[in-house]
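quick one, 639 residues, struct below
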Amino acid sequence: MKIKKLHIENFRSILSLDLDLDETTVFIGANNSGKSAILESIRIALSRRWGIRGTGFTEDDVHREKDDIDPRVAPPVKIRFEFEEETAGEWPEDMIANLDDIMTLSPEGLNRIAFSITYTWNPDKEIFEPAWEFLNPAGEPLPPKRRSINLSGFYDYILFLWLGALRDIDDEFNSRSRNWGGLLRMVKIPPELEKEIKETLDKLDTKLLGADPKLSKIAETIGHATEIAIEEKPGSAKLRMLPMNIWDLLSRAGVILQNEDLRPWLPLNHHGQGLQSLSIIFLLQASVSQQLSEGFPEGTEPIFAIEEPEAHLHPQAVRTLWQKISDLPGQKLVTTHSPYFVQNIPLLNLRLVKYKNGSSHTTCLPKKIISEIPYKGEVQKVIDGKKWRCFSKDSSSGNVLATQSFGNDIAEELIKRLDSTLGNKKAKASVLKFHRDSRILISPDEESELTLLGKRIRGEMFFAKKWILVEGPSEYLLLHALGKSLGYDLDQHGVAVIDFQNNGNASIYPALADAFGIFWYMITDGDHESEKFHNQLLNRGFSEKDLSDHFDTLPKPNDLEDQLTADGHETLLRNILKEFYGQAVVTCSQDEFKKRLKNKKTFYMTRLAPLIASDQKLASKMPKNFTSLIENLKSSSHD
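---
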């Protein structure tokens, strides 16, 4: 079973949170934003047998809006899970029969189980108490006869595995640990072989003890301990050099690794932290495979909760780690701080966690947008006839849904088809709203483009609070230099500068920013390209009102080099270009100078940017579009 939906209420930093979970879901965000709290709520709920082993919660887990609030009077902790089939018939018949008392059907006819846990202060008993119940599709408790099943019957189908960020190789590869110890305890040795091994161990042990008389003297001295302990004659003590039985032998098992042929074989704890961390992840995989093959009923699927799998790994290793995590069986819930890890994660699998106004919140890229437009009549005819990939029918509402953004031409055709049934005004309003709402949907082709072109900034940008979108590297360097000079370091304040022309198209990044709730601002040149970018945004579904506070251009028809020249920096730029072109660039015509300047955009800006960063007076004379933006960011509270 996989968790399809999760609701968390009044737990640690979370006031109320609803999450849709995928087969692999990756939580990203700043430190202390609430990522670990999400995984911890799942860990507490799914690794306990409620009413048998206690709660797993403590009073410190209760969300308090203020420090002075007593957790006993605060609202109770609530964790609700919804497990549901992906497709009809996915769950095996035996599982359905065994859990019939707590299983219900979704509106789509899929088997589902909803499970809720609460942690509440009981004033009569003066203790915090846990409680559990199974729910119907409306979220109401099932009648007593429907939940009479032993709770352990439900947990028989839950194989939960937790790996915290602070993992220790000695704890994980210990014979008493759940995973490594569990694997060792599953080893079955035939009785005949066990007897033979024990006899061999005894013989070897005797030989070792007889190798040096000092060993017998040591044993005799230690034997005097029994004289004191039980007040009788000295007892006997023997030194045992080798394990006494099979379990003693197995419990001392350890992993040795060799990095390369010329390096020695060494115990795992003698290798680097990165290799140790990876070994623990693969230990989980080995443990799961063994447990599923031996002890769990059909239908059981593992649920992994892994914090920061990238810990201690170099960037190249982190980039390849995503595929290893994705290939683990069952459901994976992961937190990460690594842009190298995020680079390879499908956008739909990301959940951005933010702490705002006293509580944790999440944003994500939606898989679909459901309209208010019925999928019937002329609308259905045109959609089916055109075979538009972006549209289909929502089974619950019967309305048109979109899985991709769509352009103005499609919106206009939908308006025409709706006109006869809804009237022009209502038809136009419905379609324009649908068009705008769908702007944040990303098509597979767009994601592929981002993967190919935008890997350099794709991981980093999701950890930023604000995005500034510019055309190329020159503007990127200029903005960072201005930030340092004008007292607003962009990295320090969580601002990512994205040169979108080299990493996708103009409309993708504003769409992603809106989906994830990230403030964005775009500055383009004032040439004919600016109109193209503007129209790309409008065609995607952004309105002129949307763009009025987010889109700016240099004065027409100037590009950045034209504007720098118009702002009085021609002499400085000629002297910078002299390093490349020689003295001739100082005296050439202005047209020739601008041509050479535009041919060496990155070259001149790599020289100009350090001068700007160290000279506030020079910085203040840079193009107003850029300096005003930095000043506005300094004084704003966008986050």
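The radius of gyration is 33 Å.
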